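FW: tagging you since you asked about this chain on Friday. Here's the raw sequence from the shared folder, copied in full. Didn't touch anything.
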Amino acid sequence: MRDFLETYGTAVAGLALLIFFAVAAPNFASPGNLLNVLKETSFLAILALGFTLALINAELDLSVADVASLSAVVAGALIQGGHPVITGVAGGLLVGLVCGLGNGMAVTVLRVPSLIATLGMAAIARGLAFALTDGVSFVGRWPAGYTGLGRGAWLGVPAPVWWLAGVTLGALFLVKWTRTGARMTATGEAGESARLAGINIRLMKCLGLALAGLLAGATAVLLTASLSSAAPNMAGDYFLYAIASVLLGMTMFEPGRANVPGTLVGALTLKVLGNGLVLMGAPYYVQDIVLGAIIIASVALSATVLKKAAFKF
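HL: got it, structure written out here
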């Protein structure tokens, strides 16, 4: 029972939270609201999965939200400039990928700690986003082919949920069933041993950070498509929630380690919590208080699990 609770306890708590709000919060269990929760989870989870892929390599990417905002305004500028939909999508993804590669090069070539490198990239991305927009949002008519990426639906399920399913399966396949994923995991868990075993740990770290940037770009494309607008700080609110999703995910399935299923459930739990609190009439600042408590508790629990594992070993 102790092992079960350590592995799945947080997921069970999330399920209990879902049941509680279904009973206590008005309209929470309505199909429309549940689909909206899933849609909102998609944006957060895709961004958080990028953070997860970087963290699997034992690197932090604190620039994901600002890179997403920069990618959003670039995509918005291209679309509002009359360029084809594919150009806007490619522009948003490319900006994210380039920023991620920049982080990777700073960490692996310049030997700058990822905490500092990504904070620097966050400042650069934020400044460029405001420079491109003069602090205003891109609004107006957006092509239906573009907005369909974020507003469309298939089989009654919002399009972003399908995009999230694809990203999740891709990330899970990469980490669990490819040699590259095994090398990324080895790099994060025992970097020196991985290097002595012949693994190019610089390449793995660069790959993880590049994927984090790419998924930040994907989040930006879906957000702009869903909202039909692009603002220089539109993804800023996702920063702490993305980190909290990953940290919360580290308390389940593979306790103490960043993992794809845990991040997905963590993001869903946070969105369920936020939505339920709003429907119950809780003040907006309550979410911030709960979020901070979750971050602290998640780190403490993960550290405790790792200490127990080390002691057993």
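FW: The two ends are 20 Å apart (CA to CA).
HL: agreed, and The chain has 13 helices and two strands.
FW: great, closing this out.
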